[in-house]
Amino acid sequence: MDLPGSIHDFLIVFMGSGLILGSLGVVLFTSPIFCAFSLGLVLIYISLFYILANSHFVAFAQLLIYVGAINILVIDSVMFMNDLEYDKIFHRWTVGDGITSLVCTSLFVSLTIIILIASWYGINWTTKLNQILEQDLINTSQRIGIHLSTNFFLSVELISIILLVALIGATAVARQ
Amino acid sequence: MILEYVLVLSAFLFSIGIFGLVTSRNLVRALMCLELLLNAVNLNFVTFSDFFDSRQLKGNIFSIFVIAIAAAEAAIGPAIVSSIYRNRKSTRINQSNLLNK
């Protein structure tokens, strides 16, 4: 999106804090329906991130597929679970939880150090010129469509076959 | 500076997803954390594609494929959950003989 720089940055920081809270909610809540709704919130925030990053097609695919289909599937499978009495909001942590949190924190710290050290703008990103006329007049979604139908055509066909096989297999497993 | 912020955010989502996946006591929460993992990776791809690859958008296209694979996995996951629940009447994943008849 072509927003002014400060509004762009403010929105990214604001949605980043929403993402952090939502993902902590997915992991730490006891009741699974709270987890499912936190996951829905995280997915919607990520879709807004994609809109800010000029990727409108991926944003709407994320909204339709993730929020519309996958989150509904997750909520449906939440309803399979037993009705336990949830008297606490957060779990009590065991020793395994503590060790895993240490490992994941160290992973996150090492990734952050790598991200902050690397000089991203100094890498030579060479992209060769492709033979599409009027390259500067096409917007992002049209460019994605052109690439999907010319360069990545085989991948699209394979993905469609994979999806078909997966969905038929899922209904075969879920039947009696 | 915004690029590093978004990359650190996706690294945070990734590590939170791994933590939730390893410490989850039932299968549905593990599926939800798996979706978190895939979304963190997607965010990374789309950010790089926006900042460095405005011509060819390879990151965007790969993230579309990742979304499609996540949809297939999110269809199979609840099917397995339902068959486990039908056999065992619970969704704990501590045991390894869950799909036994």
From TrEMBL, chain B:
Keywords: Chloroplast, Membrane, NAD, NADP, Plastid, Plastoquinone, Quinone, Thylakoid, Translocase, Transmembrane, Transmembrane helix, Transport. HAMAP family: NDH1_NuoK. NDH shuttles electrons from NAD(P)H:plastoquinone, via FMN and iron-sulfur (Fe-S) centers, to quinones in the photosynthetic chain and possibly in a chloroplast respiratory chain. The immediate electron acceptor for the enzyme in this species is believed to be plastoquinone. Couples the redox reaction to proton translocation, and thus conserves the redox energy in a proton gradient. Its EC number is 7.1.1.-. It catalyses: a plastoquinone + NADPH + (n+1) H(+)(in) = a plastoquinol + NADP(+) + n H(+)(out); a plastoquinone + NADH + (n+1) H(+)(in) = a plastoquinol + NAD(+) + n H(+)(out). The keyword Ribonucleoprotein does not apply. It is found in: Membrane; Plastid, Chloroplast thylakoid membrane. Belongs to the complex I subunit 4L family. This is NAD(P)H-quinone oxidoreductase subunit 4L, chloroplastic. GO terms for biological process: ATP synthesis coupled electron transport; photosynthesis, light reaction. GO terms for molecular function: oxidoreductase activity, acting on NAD(P)H, quinone or similar compound as acceptor; quinone binding. It comes from Haloxylon ammodendron.
